[in-house]
Amino acid sequence: MKSIAILGSTGSVGVTTLDVVDRFRDRFRVVAMAAGRNLDLFVRQIERHRPELVSVATAELASELKRRLGSSCKTEIKTEIHHGPEGAVATATHPAAEIVVSALVGALGLGPTLAAIAAGKDIAFANKEVLVIAGEMMTAAVRERGVRLLPVDSEHNAIFQCLEGRGRASLKRIILTASGGPFLRLAPDRFASITVAEALNHPTWRMGNKITIDSATLMNKGLEVIEAHWLFDLPAERIAVVIHPQSVIHSMVEMIDGSVIAEMAEPDMAIPVAYALAFPDRLPLDHLKSLSLVERGNLTFEEPDPARFPCLRLAYQALEAGGTMAACLNAANEEMVAAFLGGRARFADIPRHIETVMTRHKNCSARTLEDLYDVDGWARAQVQELIGHAPAASL
Question: pTM for this one?
């Protein structure tokens, strides 16, 4: 039985992971979980899975969690309760955990994921921002410790599946597919009036707010390009992006002989989560609908429109620049998405202000984690300066 620690158990990937665990109780058990602020769901997860250690964002939430667990459970739950960054690290480095599901959103996952690698844990990797910020540092740590980095993002998991058993010398390029989000056909001059509700209405996937906005701007795909560079050791010119609105082909690889190999399935995150948890085995996910190409009908593909999706261009520029530019890009994006969701910026401001911050950034090499945190903080401060007098978004 494989023991699992989950960073971000109340997010969409965390919830899916626990559903897979529920379906295969003979194969998996949860020994540690970290969550943010959704205590209602977290309490239910703890009662169901009885982990040995849990963590929440703050000391106040930890006290409230202790009170709720003490009053709501018929039988005592002997669970250590931690909080803050130290609690997330304690979750990621739990002695019994064999694999850590890294699903915290954004830069919050950087420290705990690196700590898990240093502790010799395999990583089921769903936090692309960590590789974007610290790809060189992370991949070096993975090689040094000899652990496995198993991608959970549907696109990178698809590439991972397509390459299984195939020598990298035979790989010509990878092709990441993107749904195009809710604004694939929207005229660029309409982007200034996009509301939060419209941006959160993704046509294919049901995800957290941050990643849903990233999908609407196509920054999510840009971050995946940077992630793919580190996961598969390919330069930017060998990583392509194609719009595929049906989200049936989750990504493809082109081999040097011209063969193209694709991973296809109905869109459901249970597939990449289960593959990462059970690797190299496959699990019978009988509850999922089988893919019928006849029912699906036409599958279409097109080039991303740079006028609609400038964030994709910015991500490629950050990758090609190297150094700390990707960390700058990521921090600026996180702040701009939060500002848009909070009504302090317009949708069209997101790429505009990110580009301004990138232009201001003095790119350099990062020797330590603190160097990356410094860039992260600087970029966030720049965004706050830029949006100080920005008009509010329509809610």
Answer: 0.89
